[in-house]
User: Fold this.
Amino acid sequence: MKIVAALLLTTLFAIRPQTRLQSPIESTARELLTNFARGQFQSATSDFNDDLRPIVTPAVLAQVKAQLDQQVGAFYLVKEAHPRIVDGFRAIELIAKFDKAPVSVVVVFDAFDRVGAVYFNPILAPVVDPALEAVAREVLTNFTAGRYDDAVKPFDAEMRKQLSPAKMAGLAASVAEKFGTFVSVTEVHQKLETFRIIDMVLSYTKAPVSYRVTFDAQGRVTALRIAPFVKY
Assistant:
């Protein structure tokens, strides 16, 4: 489905979440991660099986934590937990929020629900493509300067139909009313979903703004989103 560029002013509705029961192995995986993050390495190895314990010692875990501390910073919380099958064995993948980047923590269990393997894999953002960033900044510069005919030039044909210069002018008026005047770009990130995406955080006089530009394989803009910035 084609994404139409629009100003997203989202109303949030509170819904009482349903309680989800943890499986015993998920509880074990979470406890392992908590002990690891606290530096309680002896406790972190308490559920290791006899094959893993001599290999991944508390000293080894301390080295792994030192590397993660340098690479992704401090641990905050577990955002997601998913059951997995790894080499025929049950596993739990925890997506953990750290200061600089999320980490995939995969805990693999043997037939007796003892920990047979554990993996810590930072989920690092792709390196920002300078060519795509340049196009995203060009669109932004022309948009904030009121040069709407120039702003739509990198769009593909479908986007030009959906977001004409006149509609860009209306979008700019809505942005100005809600967020004030553009000040600067404060963050730039790239994501790879179905298409390549440049995500920017923009400083405006009233509130920060999330600015997202989606590109096709030929580097043409296929979607544009401007929305309130929410830090997760």
Q: What stands out?
A: The CA atoms of residues 105 and 120 lie 5 Å apart. The longest helix spans residues 58-72. The domain at 127-228 is CATH 3.10.450.590 (Nuclear Transport Factor 2; Chain: A,).
